[in-house]
Design brief:
Elements (H helix, E strand, L loop, with lengths): L6 H10 L4 H12 L12 H7 L7 E7 L5 E6 L5 E9 L2 E5 L3 E3 L14 E4 L2 H14 L11 E4 L9 H12 L11 E5 L3 H8 L6 E5 L5 H7 L8 H15 L3 E7 L7 H11 L4 E7 L13 H13 L4 E3 L24
Parallel strand pairs: 4-7, 7-8, 8-9, 9-10, 10-11, 11-12
Antiparallel strand pairs: 1-2, 2-3, 3-4, 5-6
The chain binds S-adenosyl-L-homocysteine.
Length: 342
């Protein structure tokens, strides 16, 4: 698909098709401005027919808007598969949360994305497509973009779709494309240790976010199957290596689940674990997912938990939840659209 190609690769594509080079820029412009094929007015019909099979067919099929201004989009791909992405608007800019897979195979007990397992990986161009379509929806073009930040925190485990995600990161940070700074991109992972080491070698200075959610392996294993494969010790060693290589502070996600990981003892253990690590802890009360049967701690309990972490010397905040009323909050993303709900 043509949105998988960089500007330079697009040139090779048109040369192969026997078409003048400037046509490559025009096709690139159309894709990066989020246009559908039938919205392109500056290409001859014969060329449009020639590229039809390769031109992206993703589109926004539904939008929801939350009371707090957060928007959720359902994006459909050529094969009818859909993913959700969420746009959060802040004073300093617009952050898009993109999906990297249709479904997920990590099986975390509190998360809705993996309820039906993994359907398929998204290609680099399909991940990029989410950014381009939403940017267009906000009235932006790629040269005058409305999107400033990206988080890879939608459905899917980005490091389980490693090559496509890296290609996406190169495309989205490319100066010839939508040109988003790597400093404004965060990748969140449940902790695939070998891939964290690989990521440190890519020369991409993105923020690494670890979904930790527990102060020890025993508690972690209760909700996250991946904890049976990699220990917290191994994950933190991989983080230290990432910090050494990139000089970037890592983020630790800690979702508070009532009666599972929210006790004072857990806070103390977490302090011991993270002390000395260049990190910031984001505490989030678990968002309710009806099929999961786990309850979140209250906001008050979350502030108390953060208070303990801060007194223990950690940098920590309670993360604002946005878009809860449109099931756009962390962990709530799933294809409810298909079932006619939401
Ligand atoms: N697979 C990646 C990224 C997607 S999930 C990862 O695990 O990090 C994005 C974040 O939402 C993760 O921190 C995840 O643990 C968290 N999350 C999942 N379900 C949640 C829920 N019900 N409430 C709050 N956060 C949740």
């Amino acid at each position: 698909m043509l949105s998988d190609l960089s500007f330079e690769e697009m040139k090779d594509y048109v040369v192969e098709k026997g078409v003048p080079l400037f046509r490559g820029s025009q096709i690139f412009d159309a894709i990066y401005n989020g246009k559908e094929l039938n919205e392109i007015t500056n290409l001859p019909k014969s060329l449009l027919e020639q590229i039809m099979g390769d031109y992206p067919k993703y589109k926004i099929v539904k939008r929801y808007e939350s009371k707090d201004g957060t928007k959720k989009y359902i994006i459909e791909f050529h094969d009818g598969e859909v993913v959700e992405c969420v746009l959060m608007s802040y004073k300093y800019g617009n952050t898009i949360c993109v999906s990297t897979q249709v479904g997920c195979r990590m099986g975390c007990k509190f998360c809705a994305s993996g309820l039906n397992g993994l359907k398929r990986n998204l290609t680099a161009g399909e991940i990029l497509g989410q950014v381009l379509l939403v940017n267009k929806d906000l009235g932006g073009t790629y040269k005058n973009r409305k999107i400033t930040n990206i988080v890879l925190m939608g459905s899917g485990e980005p490091l389980d779709n490693y090559d496509n995600v890296i290609r996406f990161l190169r495309l989205v940070t490319d100066g010839k494309g939508i040109n988003i700074s790597d400093r404004n991109i965060s990748l969140s992972t449940c902790g695939l240790v070998p891939e964290i080491y690989r990521l440190a070698e890519e020369g991409l200075n993105i923020t690494l976010t670890i979904s930790l959610h527990a102060p020890n392996d025993e508690i972690r294993q209760r909700t996250m199957p991946i904890a049976n494969r990699y220990s917290i010790k191994e994950i933190l060693a991989a983080c230290r290596n990432y910090i050494n290589k990139t000089k970037r502070r890592v983020a630790i996600e800690y979702t508070l689940i009532k009666g599972v990981n929210d006790s004072k003892v857990c806070a103390e253990e977490l302090i011991g674990l993270l002390k000395g690590l260049l990190c910031h802890v984001n505490v989030i009360p678990l968002n309710y997912v009806k099929e999961r049967g786990l309850a979140g701690s209250t906001r008050k309990e979350s502030y108390q938990f953060v208070g303990l972490l801060e007194r223990g010397g950690l940098s920590a905040t309670v993360r604002r939840t946005m878009g809860e009323d449109i099931a756009g909050a962390c962990g709530q993303l799933r294809n409810s659209y298909l079932g006619g709900e939401a």
